[in-house]
Design a protein that fits this description.
Layout: H1 3-94, H2 98-113, E1 121-124, H3 130-137, E2 143-145, E3 154-159, E4 164-169, H4 170-190
Parallel strand pairs: 1-2
Antiparallel strand pairs: 1-3, 3-4
Helix pairs in contact: 1-4
Length: 192
């Protein structure tokens, strides 16, 4: 075998090996490209899912916020209606006069008088009820009309001797009744 043949065989072998390496390299490059494309697709898919999740979350938050605002607006409107009704009731109570006012005032004083022994008891009421109170208090021993108080009517009865103070004003009765019946009032007004 000649040297040229050996060189040629080595070259052929080197070319074959180079072709094999090139082929393996191209195959590996294709695998890397395929893997990179799959990873890129996965990244895009994940980004799309994340974007959809964020959009859904924002939509839910905005919807929740809108519902809360609507609920607050309804509650505010209801509160305003309840205040108007309360104010109307107060006005109607303040307008009670004549025999009805006297009967109510006497009844409230009777209830309060049970708490006192009759020693220097002062009865306070609305300033416009001074004459009415003078007439009613005359029927009670040890009771006298005191200074007027800011109220719709009724009486505030107190005694220094017993340190007892009974608030039987129309206002206090209204507030008690209002608080006790607020659910029912609300249900009737708003058909709940």
């Amino acid at each position: 075998m000649s040297l040229d043949t050996v060189v040629e065989d080595i070259r052929d072998e080197a070319r074959a090996r180079a072709d094999e390496i090139r082929s393996e390299g191209e195959e590996r490059a294709e695998e890397i490209i395929d893997e990179a494309e799959r990873e890129a697709d996965d990244i895009v898919d994940e980004a799309e899912r994340e974007a959809e999740r964020k959009i859904s979350q924002e939509r839910d938050q905005k919807l929740s916020s809108a519902k809360l605002e609507a609920k607050q607006a309804r509650l505010e409107a209801r509160r305003e209606v309840l205040e108007e009704v309360h104010d109307d009731v107060e006005a109607q109570i303040a307008d009670i006069d004549g025999d009805e006012r006297e009967a109510l005032t006497r009844s409230l004083l009777d209830a309060a008088a049970e708490e006192f022994d009759g020693d220097s008891v002062r009865v306070h009421g609305h300033e416009d009820d001074a004459d009415l109170l003078e007439g009613i208090v005359a029927d009670y021993d040890g009771f006298e009309v005191g200074e007027p108080v800011d109220c719709l009517g009724g009486v505030v009865v107190e005694s220094d001797a017993s340190r007892v103070r009974v608030n039987n004003t129309f206002d206090s009765i209204l507030e008690d009744v209002w608080e006790e019946n607020l659910r029912e009032i609300s249900a009737r007004l708003f058909e709940e």
